[in-house]
């Protein structure tokens, strides 16, 4: 069976057409929902690089040293594309990988990583064919294949100028927000997601047709800057709906609301762009007779707060940052079903491997050094096939050295790691998601929930106890050639 994994960047769980109370129509993404959607998919880390390296390896970020966007994935870690290659698949990686974050934040423009010169290194991760984008903001430092595309057209430095003028990132509203939400200033065909869509379709056309294919197609929207071409912005109504979830400091200021309404519009318009590109890919598969033999998965690395709880961007433990869309179209199970059980983003990794006839643990493990055989991802194939209603009782997530959380079907428990007194202990939150879906009422001191809180605390400790960091090796043996 062919496998196509389409990924967006920073797409909220409720910003896809099939979702309950959807905020934007996505008729083509909804075609993938002909199989099954998982309405409670939680990323294992709501930051780009940690989530993406976890997906590649099927491990939690704390196992592979990527809990923060700081440093690089160790390329000695087994990956699922390597396992697919070994099983006879032709594999391609198109778009944003973000496995490397070598440079610190004060690195000057153009002083990052020459990704375009590292194609062989990226191919070694399990891709026969690679065409890589850094991402929108990261392309101001790195030099990737998309940068090369822009440079050939004399657009690289104008593009970098434009991106930098959109302002810096922050987790809370500030004066920089007003700089963003500006339409793409260049030809529509040069937008990073238009180019990525074309490269995905080219890979389908140019694949080794004697083998089944796996293609990872990774778009860069709706990540900041929110930069839709004007045509897509015109599709999106200019609305001023004051439905922001209040933050710990109360409601947003009227000034910030007006800016966020503009950003919401641009954010949703970039999703319309993605939907059009995904539609072209699906049409190509259908016209080529490939749709009936291709597993298609659509998800995102993390969400976007967009003003809820008084926050913007990601890295938050709230649902808007933590939960992502997940739709899986398995050609043998087109049931248009919705599953509400807890799911982790890296369960996609195990699902892909099992769909290829591989055992995820065996495919991703090494016998040495220690702890390389602890693979926490779980395949969703039994749920797709109707053999099981769920594969997890809870989902785990972590972020930087700030917090860790456990989310079950009804509750969410979060432990905050920044505390100084071991006797006082950490701050905690506990939400009853059934009765408080906006996660506004912290029940951690409510004795009525003492047993449930204890259950979640013990699951968090269990996850950490059972998944220690994997050990690495680099010294050459004298007997190796």
TrEMBL record:
Coiled coil: none
Pfam families, per the entry: Sulfatase
Top-level division of the source organism's lineage: Bacteria
PROSITE patterns attached to this UniProt entry: SULFATASE_2 (PS00149)
Keywords for the protein's UniProt record, in alphabetical order: Hydrolase, Metal-binding
Sulfatase N-terminal domain ranges (all copies): 2-357
Family listed: Belongs to the sulfatase family.
The protein's name: Sulfatase-like hydrolase/transferase
Lineage: Bacteria, Pseudomonadati, Verrucomicrobiota, Opitutia, Puniceicoccales
């Amino acid at each position: 069976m062919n496998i196509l994994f389409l990924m967006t960047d920073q797409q909220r769980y409720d910003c896809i057409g099939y979702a309950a109370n959807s905020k934007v129509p996505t008729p083509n993404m909804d075609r993938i929902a002909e199989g099954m959607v998982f309405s409670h998919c939680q990323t294992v880390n709501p930051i780009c690089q940690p989530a993406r390296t976890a997906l590649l390896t099927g491990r939690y970020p704390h196992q592979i040293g990527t809990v923060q966007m700081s440093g690089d994935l160790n390329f000695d870690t087994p990956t699922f594309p390597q396992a697919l290659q070994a099983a006879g698949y032709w594999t391609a990686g198109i778009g944003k990988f973000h496995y490397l974050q070598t440079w610190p934040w004060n690195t000057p423009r153009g002083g990052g990583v020459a990704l375009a010169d590292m194609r062989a290194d990226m191919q070694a991760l399990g891709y026969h064919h690679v065409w890589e984008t850094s991402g929108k903001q990261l392309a101001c430092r790195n030099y990737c294949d998309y940068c090369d595309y822009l440079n050939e057209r004399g657009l690289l430095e104008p593009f970098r100028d434009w991106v930098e003028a959109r302002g810096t990132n922050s987790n809370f509203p500030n004066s920089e927000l007003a700089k963003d939400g500006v339409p793409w200033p260049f030809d529509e065909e040069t937008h990073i997601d238009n180019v990525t869509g074309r490269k995905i379709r080219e890979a389908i056309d140019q694949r080794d047709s004697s083998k089944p294919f796996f293609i990872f197609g990774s778009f860069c929207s709706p990540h900041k800057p929110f930069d839709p071409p004007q045509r897509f912005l015109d599709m999106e109504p200019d609305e001023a709906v004051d439905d922001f979830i209040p933050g710990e400091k109360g409601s947003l200021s009227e000034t910030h609301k007006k800016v966020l309404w503009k950003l919401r519009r641009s954010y949703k318009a970039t999703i319309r762009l993605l939907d059009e590109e995904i539609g072209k890919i699906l049409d190509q598969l259908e016209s080529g007779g490939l749709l009936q033999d291709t597993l298609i998965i659509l998800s995102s690395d993390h969400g976007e707060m967009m003003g809820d709880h008084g926050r913007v961007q990601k890295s938050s433990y709230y649902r808007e940052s933590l939960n992502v869309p997940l739709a899986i179209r398995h050609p043998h199970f087109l049931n248009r079903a919705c599953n509400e059980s807890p799911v982790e983003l890296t369960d996609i990794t195990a699902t892909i491997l099992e769909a290829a006839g591989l055992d995820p643990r065996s495919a991703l493990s090494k016998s040495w050094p220690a702890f390389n055989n602890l693979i926490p991802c779980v395949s969703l194939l039994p749920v797709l096939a109707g053999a099981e209603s769920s594969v997890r009782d809870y989902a785990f997530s972590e972020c930087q050295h700030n917090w860790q959380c456990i989310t079950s079907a009804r509750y969410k428990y979060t432990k905050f790691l920044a505390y100084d007194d071991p006797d006082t202990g950490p701050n905690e939150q506990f939400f009853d998601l059934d009765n408080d879906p906006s996660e506004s009422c912290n029940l951690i001191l409510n004795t009525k929930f003492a047993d449930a809180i204890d259950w979640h605390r013990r699951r968090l400790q269990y996850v950490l106890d059972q998944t220690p960091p994997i050990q690495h090796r680099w010294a050459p043996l004298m007997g190796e050639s």
